[in-house]
Design goal:
The chain is α+β, with helices and mostly antiparallel strands. The chain has twelve helices and 16 strands. The strands form three sheets. Strands 1, 2, 3, 4, 5, 6, 14, 15 and 16 form a nine-stranded mixed sheet that branches. Helix 1 crosses helix 12 and helix 10 crosses helix 12. The protein is elongated, with a radius of gyration of 22 Å. It binds (2S)-amino(hydroxy)ethanoic acid (HGY) and manganese (II) ion (MN) (2 copies). One manganese (II) ion (MN) binds next to loops.
Length: 411
């Protein structure tokens, strides 16, 4: 029996082919969820999966499942996967690596003529980044029962397009029910999106858990007015009020130790005209911390800071919590399987913790789940300069291959 082997060149070339779909101006990737570019990437993944002998199905939120049958088709599958959508100025590896490494595992097993006892499924989860419809991990959230399908399909982008409408438009409003079937376990492989592995010269991270995260929309309402004629004392300037609130919100991080991470990344201004005093501003807040209670306290402090400023400036304030997930601890059995797979292949490995959110966090609520990290250049991600080394991608995929084999078993 031949040993299965990851084909590093094939894995790398797959990333380069995917990166050509939705290039961004600065040499990165701009493939927002459910756009025409996402449709093209989905088609490519589907074609490659079918060429590798997988049966492909799509569920009602557009998640794509590529299934390699096992000798025991009735047994819940060993699942792996991530996402093909990117940030507006993203890179070629965030998410894509988790889908293509899963596909490479299937290809390596095919090449070696290895059948597994359990089925294997490789998944592209819909809209992990949340950069278009205002909330992340849509596909895996609905799949894991953490978001309702209907209200998720009703989410809209800045132009009023709904998730439902866009899934239908690109042809990925699938017929299959979302979730509700057993999974043996789920592995997600991902670039670290931080500097630890690269700084320590370690090729693989066995991810023990991920921090909690809460997202908000803050809407500040004042009154439009003429920029040239309305005296300062009479203004109810939503932009100035928001600017003070954003400064206060981000500085809440300094009040807790260790600091939560707090980001205001998205701003909508009405009417967004140079010489009209803004009447309404909506801004996002992304806040995260390993401790659920500290994150909740930070949320209360941010709310209080905004209320004080709104009161002082005579502004109306609305704060909507758009997402929340508690911190998670991944399945110790899955984490150990990853450590063992690395050790058996002589691949350097250390335990690590995830600051970023991932679909595996949602899957951890419905099955044993684990994550594998590999280094990325200078830890840079959510940036067009995102980069990784072929040898690290291949080493990670080797660990994924043997973790999956350990769980799926040889027939
Ligand atoms: O935001 C996140 O943590 C993920 O990278 N989308
Ligand atoms: Mn990602
Ligand atoms: Mn990301």
């Amino acid at each position: 029996m031949t040993e299965p082997k990851i084909d590093s060149r094939r894995l790398w070339d797959g990333h380069m082919a995917m990166a050509e779909i939705g290039p961004s101006p600065g040499g990165g990737t701009a493939r927002l969820a459910l756009t025409d570019f996402d449709r093209e990437a989905r088609h490519l993944f589907r074609r490659w999966a079918e060429e590798a002998g997988c049966a492909v199905r799509v569920d009602g939120i557009g998640n794509i499942f590529a299934r390699r049958e096992g000798e025991d088709p009735g047994h819940p599958p060993v699942m792996t996967g991530s996402h093909l959508d990117t940030q507006p100025l993203g890179g070629p590896f965030d998410g894509i690596y988790g889908v293509l490494a899963g596909l490479e595992v299937v290809r390596a097993l095919n090449d070696a003529g290895i059948a597994t006892r359990l089925p294997i499924e490789v998944v592209d989860w819909t809209d992990e980044e949340g950069a278009r419809f205002g909330a992340g991990c849509l596909g895996s959230n609905v799949f894991a029962g953490r978001r309702a399908l209907d209200n998720t399909l009703a989410l809209t982008d800045a132009h009023g397009n709904t998730v439902r409408g866009e899934l239908e438009r690109i042809g990925y409003a699938g017929p299959k029910p979302v979730g509700g079937f057993p999974i043996d376990c789920f592995f997600e492989i991902h670039i670290e999106q931080g500097p630890i592995l690269e700084n320590e010269g370690i090729q693989v991270g066995a991810v023990e858990g991920a921090q909690a995260s809460t997202g908000y929309w803050v809407t500040v309402t004042g009154e439009e007015g003429h920029a040239g004629t309305l005296p300062m004392a009479l203004r109810r300037d939503a932009m100035h009020g928001s600017a003070r609130m954003i400064d206060a919100v981000v500085n809440v991080a300094m009040d807790f130790d260790p600091h939560p991470v707090i980001t205001v990344g998205h701003l909508r201004v009405r009417p967004n005209s140079r010489n009209t005093i803004p009447g309404q501003v909506t801004f996002s807040i992304d806040s995260r911390h390993p401790d659920n209670d500290i994150l909740a306290s930070a949320g209360a402090a941010m709310r209080a800071a905004c209320e004080t400023i709104a009161e002082d400036r005579g502004l109306e304030l609305e704060i909507e919590q758009t997402s929340h997930r508690d911190s998670v601890v991944f399945d110790p059995g899955c984490v150990q399987t990853i450590r063992d797979a690395a050790a058996a292949r002589g691949i350097s490995c250390r335990d690590i913790y995830s600051g970023a959110g991932h679909d595996a966090i949602n899957l951890s609520h419905v099955c044993p789940a684990g994550m594998i990290f590999v280094p990325c250049e200078k830890g840079v991600s959510h940036n067009e300069a995102e980069n990784a080394k072929p040898e690290d991608l291949a080493a990670g995929a080797e660990v994924l291959l043997h973790a999956i084999l350990a769980r799926a078993g040889r027939a």
